[in-house]
Amino acid sequence: QVQLVESGGGLVQPGGSLRLSCVASGNIYSIYAMGWYRQAPGKQRELVAWITSGGRTNYADSVKGRFTISRAKNTLYLQMNSLKPEDTAVYYCNAAPWGSLPWGQGTQVTVSS
Questions:
Q1: Could you give the CA distance from residue 29 to residue 106 in angstroms, rounded to a whole number?
Q2: What span, in angstroms and rounded, lies between the C-alpha atoms of 24 and 80?
Q3: How crowded is residue 93: how many other Cβ atoms within 10 Å of its Cβ?
């Protein structure tokens, strides 16, 4: 069974940057389109960035121009720049766009001064 482990979250001031990582237990990136999702308190989980098996990337309007998704071997990355308080959420990686793999524990990102 595939396991996804996210890391790299933390507390950052508005305008700051973080880089999230997601390590998969198997080489799934050649099979699945993969994405980064986030869930803020009291809100539904949303897909914010995804990358196809062919390397094409897509972003939600709310993060376009600020976030960059990439991958290398069995690791998925999300570079987040110009962070805003509204980016505060638990971030997860999973297959895109439906989140069909078992969910990991996520990594908390808090943007606050």
A1: 18
A2: 20
A3: 31
